Amino acid sequence: MNALELHAVHKSFGGAPAVQNISLSVPAGSRTAIVGPSGSGKTTLLRMIAGFEYPDRGCITLNGQVLVDDQGAVPAHRRLIGYVPQDGALFPHLSVAANIGFGLTGPHGDKQQRIAELLDMVALDRSMAARWPHELSGGQQQRVALARALAQRPRLMLLDEPFSALDTGLRASMRKAVARLLAEAGVTTILVTHDQAEALSFADQLAVMRQGRLVQAGAPLELYQHPRDAQTALFLGDAVLLPARLDQGLAECDLGLVPVRDATLQGPAQIMLRPEQLQVLVDDGDCTDSCQGVVRECDFAGNTCTLSIGVTSAAGHEQLLPVRSSGLQAPAPGSRVRIRTLGHAHVLGSSPEA
């Protein structure tokens, strides 16, 4: 069952379209990441779901309830949707407990019990209830913001780049902790981010936006392996894009003959391989199922590194290909190597045989 449904949602500002004809289904209890470059419309879409903005046309429903359509809209405070902004937006004049309990109603004792439960839920010591926001680390502030959003038992949680202000190590640990927490609570979640790695690791469903439009949506692995076009391929990570000619399940390209999944495709095309599909071999002269290249650069990152390997194209020009390698066994710049492809290439575009 889908918790959230967006149908043909459109929004313009001053005549300039910000979101164009977006339709998206978010399954109940799932985590969806909306990713795209700055200006792609992802935050505008999130704010329309929250009720902070209203679409010019289209329909948004949550658990079967119409939140907004051509007939009217449910105000933001009545949607039971949690919202965590990028900076947490804690009230600086309120304690941690008062921030979490903001908006809670009922007897004082019940409120205090609920605040204590929420502190436990986000893995914060109950002794922190008396602290002020400026006395917390960035990660602790985000946990308090999440606890405040969970206090109302929301039907949907919206996260607007909540980890972007954290350092790299803390960002990864917070992302895992929040994903685990929301999964255990069974809360349907939408994350907006410009960080591709964050989106791929966090989400059950990935939605890629570009210039106000939804380009592609699906499982993260599916989009990473089978992007719709070259722009999406490059946005989701490093990619090797090569012109090729398809025939009987093989793509003839500068790397030699590379298998593709669809043997019915024929003629010129553009294929994509991810860097981890390229294997670096010692150039001993005995490899017949690989192509030759020269290591031009080595970007060392500890246990792994990315090699830039120059391969001469059929037209006589050198193309630099990114190749993943072990950081301990990476060949030095200037080394002659051979490149072997692993798995199937993804076909981004093809045309019929002339």
TrEMBL record:
It comes from the Bacteria. GO terms for biological process: quaternary ammonium group transport. Residues 4-236 form the ABC transporter domain. GO terms for cellular component: ATP-binding cassette (ABC) transporter complex. PROSITE patterns: ABC_TRANSPORTER_1 (PS00211), ABC_TRANSPORTER_2 (PS50893). CDD domains: ABC_Carb_Solutes_like. It holds the Pfam family ABC_tran. The keyword Transcription regulation does not apply. One of its GO terms (molecular function) is ATP hydrolysis activity. Keywords: ATP-binding, Cell membrane, Ion transport, Iron, Iron transport, Membrane, Nucleotide-binding, Transport. This is Iron(III) transport system ATP-binding protein.
